[in-house]
Amino acid sequence: MHLLEFLWRYIIFGTFESVTLLFLFLYLIDDLKFLWVHWKSCLLYIVLYVLMRYILLYQLEVNYTVLYLVFSVLVLAYITKTDLYFSLTANIVSFLVYAISEIVVSIPVLYLMGTSINSAKQDISLMRNVLLVVRPIQMVILYLITRLPIKNEILKKKSNREDGSSINYILLFHEYFFRLFS
Questions:
Q1: What one-character-per-residue DSSP string does 21-47 give?
Q2: Rounded to an integer, what is the distance from CA 149 to the centroid of its chain?
Q3: Alpha-carbon gap, residue 87 to 49, rounded angstroms
Q4: Low-confidence ranges of the chain (pLDDT < 50)
Q5: Contact at 8 Å (CB) between 51 and 73?
Q6: Apex CA 89: angle with CA 87 and CA 91, to 5°?
Q7: What pLDDT digit, counting tens, does each position of 35-53 carry?
Q8: Would the CA dihedral through 132, 135, 138, 143 be positive or negative?
Q9: For residue 36, how many other CB atoms are within 10 A of its CB?
């Protein structure tokens, strides 16, 4: 594998993905200032995410989203001092929003470029070109989603939760997801 291909596939794409997921998670837990106050912890998460991505994709040749999710739930719960259930809920929503936004943007871009997703996955230069178009559009869409006013009222309901039961987290997840996409 060439150095440039390695950098694009594992380092650059992994960094974009981890930064976006971290931003979405911090947005959902209503703690964006965490990025600036605890930047070393954020950098540690990004480096660990990229390292895990490299090990899973290059060394083991597996791509299980659930492993990324479990990793993010555990690490982000630890570094942000949120409880595990809330971290799980926020991470599930983050991953869903990330995946849906990527699909919504990728399909038209791939169509306009006249290529399929399988051929883009196989050819690193084609993947790079597609992602250089997709990522900025995806980031703008995610930025616009984070400007929606509905999050604050949902988080107020979250803070009124006393017992911390699993059902409250499931309801919170349901409310995030359906308000975001309805």
A1: HHHHHHHHTT-TTHHHHTHHHHHHHHH
A2: 20
A3: 16
A4: 152, 155-156, 159-161, 163, 165-167, 182
A5: no
A6: 65
A7: 999 999 999 999 999 999 8
A8: negative
A9: 8
How far apart, in Å, are the Cα atoms of 176 and each of 87, 94, 172?
14, 10, 6
SS3 content of the chain, % helix, strand, coil (to 5): 85, 0, 15
pLDDT of the residue at 168:
55
Output phi, psi for 81, to 5 deg. Answer: 60, 35
In tens, the pLDDT along 151-177 reads 545 544 554 445 454 445 555 555 555
Phi-psi domain of 165 (left: phi exceeds 0; alpha: psi -120 through 50; beta: other): beta
Residue type, 86: F
Please identify which residue in the block is written with the tokens 């399909």. Answer: 107
Instruction: Give the residue from 17, 88, 99, 98 showing the smallest Cα distance to 52.
Output: 17
Other beta carbons less than 10 A from residue 178's beta carbon: 9
Query: For position 122, what pLDDT does the model report?
Result: 83
CA dihedral sign of residues 106, 109, 115, 121: negative
**What's the one-letter identity of residue 14?**
G
